[in-house]
Write a structure and sequence with these properties.
The model has no long low-confidence stretch (mean pLDDT 93). The protein has a 6-stranded mixed β-sheet with strand order 2-1-6-5-4-3, with helices on one face. The protein has 3 helices and 6 strands. Strand 1 and strand 2 form a beta hairpin. 24% of the residues are buried. By secondary structure, it is α+β, with helices and mostly antiparallel strands.
Length: 134
């Protein structure tokens, strides 16, 4: 587990911090990036609350063993809350040999905590794309 990965102290550093935590491919490392009240929304639109549920959802991405690329389209900040619109991709050959081509635009919310660090409050990797029941 990479506990030494930095959390963002400035809103403009949220994406680099996110990317380093994601690309650790370690659930415990990535969970440090989430606010205690965080949720992650899966591809079907279901909310997963709390570290255990978020960790299970993260593992569906991490088990592929692929690095993610992120381009920040927008960052809107007001006091301790930030809205991020991020284009991301995860492309390549997964650990199981499957060819993966995941591309989406995330709509995420981060909050600055009392400790001064920004963490994800709402992780919505599929953004506004229409979701189909799985």
């Amino acid at each position: 587990m990479a506990d030494n990965l930095p959390l963002a102290e400035r809103a403009e550093d949220i994406v680099p911090s996110l990317l380093s935590h994601l690309n650790s491919l370690d659930v415990g490392t990535m969970l440090r990036f989430y606010h205690p009240d965080a949720v992650i929304i899966d591809a079907a639109g279901n909310l997963h609350r709390g570290p255990e549920a978020i960790g299970v959802e993260l593992e569906t991405y991490f088990r592929l063993g692929l690095q993610m690329s992120i381009t920040q389209s927008h960052l809107f900040v007001t006091t301790d809350t930030a809205l991020l619109i991020l284009d991301w991709s995860c492309i390549g050959t997964a650990r199981n040999g499957a060819q993966i081509n995941m591309v989406a635009t995330a709509t995420d919310i981060a909050r600055r905590g009392d400790d001064g660090f920004w963490r994800y409050l709402i992780d919505n990797p599929i953004g506004a794309r229409l979701r189909e029941p799985i």
